[in-house]
Protein 1
Amino acid sequence: AIYECLNDAHLKHKKELDSLLTLRFQKFNKSQIMNV
């Protein structure tokens, strides 16, 4: 059952997987990084 779920995930849940796998990194300027 797990194998079938993973095997079909790209077909049944493509939209959700695409949104999870989208690279969304935040960029910070050096002035925003605080030294502790």
Protein 2
Amino acid sequence: MNRFAELLDRLAYEPGRNNKLRLLTGYFREVGDPDRGYALAALTGALSFKHAKPALIRDLIAARTDPVLFGLSYDYVGDLSETVALMWPKAQNNSQSFPGHPSPPPSPTRGEGAQRSAALSASTISLSDFQSEGRTSLSVPSPLVGEGQGGGSRGRDADESPHARNHNNPPPPTLTEVVTTLRTLGKTELPKQLERWLDELDETGRWALLKLVTGALRIGISARLAKTAAAALGDKDPHEVELIWPGLAPPYLDLFAWLEGRAEKPVNRDPAPFRPVMLAHAIEDSDFAALDPADYIAEWKWDGIRVQAVAGRDDRGHITARLYSRTGEDITGSFPDLVPSLRLPGAIDGELLILREGRVQSFNVLQQRLNRKVVSPKLIKEFPIHLRAYDLLGDDENDLRELPFAERRERLETFIKNLDDPRIDLSPTVAFASWDALTAARADPASAGAGEDADAVEGVMLKRRDAPYLPGRPKGQWWKWKRDPHIIDAVLMYAQRGHGKRSSFYSDYTFGVWTAGEGGDELVPVGKAYFGFTDEELLQIDRFVRRNTTEKFGPVRHVVHEGDKGLVLEVAFEGLQRSPRHKSGVAMRFPRISRLRWDKPPREADRLETLERMLKAEAAEIEV
């Protein structure tokens, strides 16, 4: 666990992508199975432990320290895992030496590993140096391995180095021990086990353990980057790893065996696997100058949820059909009415919608079918599900992802025609010859082919004709151009510190609008946002919060909000829905801060009645 903790610590403090790749590949090279596989699983979000919740961690630290002191410390640090790691008291039995285990040296504080890494990286060759020489190998000295420990450590636990053995009394758990124990441990046994581990680990180890068990790594590593580092271990193209990834499972023994040349490339035997999705970048006005309209195909961006519908034949020739969310979650059980429509082997990338009498309904209507564990015949009848297809990733046993989009689109048209099912149709393309023409279509979808479905159009998608289907968010391949969002002026009411890199700033904001109260107009909260602003604006709001706090409720700051005193935020959002959990009775969809209105007094902010009118218009669509 110490080696994994040191890796996370250095990654958290390392801003450079190439250096992160070097650290990751060095770890995968020097650490043996199955520890490195579980590390890869943690970095790609493939691990989850249902009983390890933040509330449990708070209970553990409350039993070991003064709750008031912890509350003040947590408010200052802003990160639960780091606060607990810093405050966890030294176990009583750690104050003496044990036979065979000398007293450990003082534990390093978080960040020391990063400093050692930075010093070492100055004398090592970077990834870009290798690429400039036409080489892709990352065979560089690993900063995670001390002198005399490099190479040959595979096959023995990474934490059993001489340093690790003397670092804690008793020896700390391995990453594999932590993962396998958490997977099998019952809810009642978990607190005592976590306490034992926290006693055995040093400060950095405790921080890494808590980040791992709560699923809140947030160290600036994407799943794509972690897979790229693993691919570099065997000089493989990251795309190869992405293609076989859906058929792999932690601790990825077959993957590492292939990467190291000890086994054949893994084959996915699942007849209906999920394929990692391709995502689009939001396009800005300045981007169009560098783009040629002839290189792109445009289609409507529908206001539904992204899904992947997959069907394949098992060993007996029977069709297996599944529906996946964009993150790979199997949601087949929530939509039993769509499964019979997936009769042909293939993989469709599309949008899940509700259709009534041939018309696409709003997202609010679709929400009546989402996250349902029990789907009644009445629900199926009142909210008929529909799949609108816009890409074909597989046709029977043929993987189409490396084909250009224009060719995949032609294959999709044929596939949908052969499928011939009323619940699945083709997403129409948008004809345009210039960016001005596409701008006009985006502004008026009804006149550009969307017809009566125009209200369900969220914007326009642009896809390069020659683009292969690449997992992640590759630059310049797909663009999303959303329609202008709803805008209101709201008043900042409460602020809370963020997490990760924002843990020192008040970056989570609750805002409200005016409504009539018993004593006159009063503000009621209508939403919470933590993005949309620039770094400079974050500093401005943080400064305002610190100077205008009137009350404190744990980590929450009550900010002055009166008719003539306060900060008005211009808030953009995609839609509204009724919410009994909020005093205002409404909740926003995808709210974000679009502008700071320093020029506007709070009394001129919007009223709840404005949102109520919008809500009534949307709610009317839900009625059958």
Protein 3
Amino acid sequence: GLLQLWKKKRCILTEEGLLLIPPKQQPPPQQQQQQPPLPAEPAAKIKELHFSNMKTVDCVERKGKYVYFTVVMAEGKEIDFRCAQEQGWNAAITLQMVQYKNRQAILAVRSTRQKQQHLGQA
């Protein structure tokens, strides 16, 4: 087997995607705050995997106490993840991605219908 060094990241699942934050860095401030505190490290260290750029979440294997899964991005890049089986992160990410894509599809249909209605009235 291949040895792989796993980088520890704190993952935050949002409606738009997945934020990968180095373990020592504070998460981004909530949007409700008007004056956000300055983060301990530059925000450039925070990596966002946006659902619009995600293709699939593939469960690779369950081994011991871990689930290994891969997020496949639209451009073909693959990012490997590992989490404890009971956390079910692969399922949570997949569900959130499906909800995001469904919202985008609904917005696209509404936009098309509005354009058709405007053309019909002209």
Protein 4
Amino acid sequence: ALEVSTSLAWFALVTVTSTWLLALAYRNTKFQLKHRVAVRREDAVAREMSRKLADEKKMSRKEKDE
């Protein structure tokens, strides 16, 4: 059997390493999720703006481009 201090050192090392790996994986996944949400929102906003602009036919072309 290992002594308590040796076991504690291994436990701390494995805990720190696994925490770091989880943080790294979360960071990568978070970026992908944010990108996916941004793309979906962009499509929805473009659709909504097109609908609004179609309703407001009195607007000038310059106002629609803005």
